[in-house]
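Help needed: design a sequence for this.
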């Protein structure tokens, strides 16, 4: 009996430690954002995903189904996003002139000086300019640096050099990350922002 109790205590301690590590990873990367929008957006994304696919708590199946539909261009964009997520996408778009934004102007990104450049002047604030995901920004770099997945790090490194890659192709690459690494918060955050919200920022005008 004492041995069983001791084993249960050890298992419980390991579980608590794992959860603490998980929480610290999330907190550290979300702390890059001082506005709180990243945490709100991620929570809204997960709620949308689980409400839409209805696979219970099966995170892997839910996320992989989403990625498969994006990759095959079969995703139902009329039913998936909530009004809250659409509004958050609009908020992201409004903030795209900030050098630390998750999305920046393509012209700035191609100059490879996004992280160092000053806040754009009024002459650079062109709403019609193409926006691109800021793979060199602090939040994504945090996800990359805290991730234990070499596959995930390789994907980000590739995108840092050439961020003008279609969302469907990025989804395919992420889809094949091994299950153990796929379940990490870093990968899930990347899916939420680089894939889900990147799509919503394009289609948000179709929603009232």
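Sure. Designed sequence:
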């Amino acid at each position: 009996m004492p041995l069983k109790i001791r084993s249960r205590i050890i298992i419980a301690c390991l579980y608590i430690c794992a959860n603490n590590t998980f929480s610290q990873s999330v907190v550290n990367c979300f702390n890059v954002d001082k506005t709180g929008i990243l945490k709100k957006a991620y929570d809204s994304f997960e709620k949308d995903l689980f409400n839409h696919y209805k696979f219970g708590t099966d995170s892997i199946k839910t996320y992989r189904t989403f990625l498969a539909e994006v990759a095959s261009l079969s995703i139902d964009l009329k039913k998936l996003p909530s009004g809250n997520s659409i509004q958050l996408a609009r908020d992201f778009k409004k903030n795209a002139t900030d050098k630390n934004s998750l999305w920046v102007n393509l012209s700035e990104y191609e100059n490879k000086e996004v992280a160092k450049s000053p806040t754009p002047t009024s002459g650079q604030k062109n709403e019609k300019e193409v926006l691109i995901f800021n793979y060199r920004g602090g939040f994504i770099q945090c996800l990359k640096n805290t991730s234990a997945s070499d596959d995930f790090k390789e994907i980000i490194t590739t995108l840092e050099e050439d961020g003008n890659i279609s969302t469907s192709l990025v989804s395919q690459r992420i889809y094949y990350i091994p299950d153990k690494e796929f379940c990490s918060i870093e990968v899930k955050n990347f899916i939420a922002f680089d894939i889900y919200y990147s799509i919503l920022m394009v289609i948000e005008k179709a929603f009232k």
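The longest helix spans residues 2-30.
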